[in-house]
Write a structure and sequence with these properties.
4 helices, 7 strands, three-stranded antiparallel sheet, alpha+beta, single chain
Length: 156
């Protein structure tokens, strides 16, 4: 995922080389959480279980070999299988882009990165709504505010 322009100054000038070192040299072009391969289509169920074509077996959301069971003896519904194109990103484990030591960085696929950043994303959504409401409260005409509140709370 590209770095937002307003956050670019938080990253070191050699971020691309550092990211490449983590993703390709250390992680071997595989997610460090689930072992999905970089720049490959992967068949998966959506709950984290995915087919490792190189190894020839299903893996869990943590990259462990698993047996997939469904209806009947060793069968499952092929309609439930989806495909995703995997792209690795270098993630900050403590969410601080200024903390760039290798123990704080991990090569993560999109799924693992989104799960890792879920709390941060929820906070960011809250902050954006809060900020926009605060700006509206500062600059909105009081008559419009009264009308808007009357529409939402007719008993007032």
């Amino acid at each position: 995922m590209p770095i937002r322009p307003e956050n670019r100054w938080l990253y070191p000038i050699d971020w691309q080389q550092l990211s490449d070192t983590i993703r390709f040299d250390r992680a071997g072009a595989r997610c460090e959480r689930c072992a999905r391969p970089h720049l490959r289509f992967v068949a998966h169920f959506g709950d984290g279980r995915w087919w490792d074509a190189d190894a020839g077996y299903w893996r869990s959301d943590r990259g462990r070999r698993i047996a997939v069971r469904g209806q009947g003896r060793g069968r499952f519904d092929m309609a439930a299988v989806r495909t995703t194109y995997v792209v690795l990103a270098c993630a900050h484990l403590d969410h601080d882009p200024g903390h760039n030591i290798s123990s704080n960085l991990a090569a993560l696929c999109q799924r693992c990165h989104m799960l890792h950043d879920a709390v941060e994303h929820r906070w960011q959504r809250w902050w954006n709504v809060f900020r926009l409401c605060a700006l509206r409260d500062l600059y909105e005409d009081p008559r419009l505010t009264r009308e808007r509140l009357a529409r939402h709370h007719p008993s007032a």
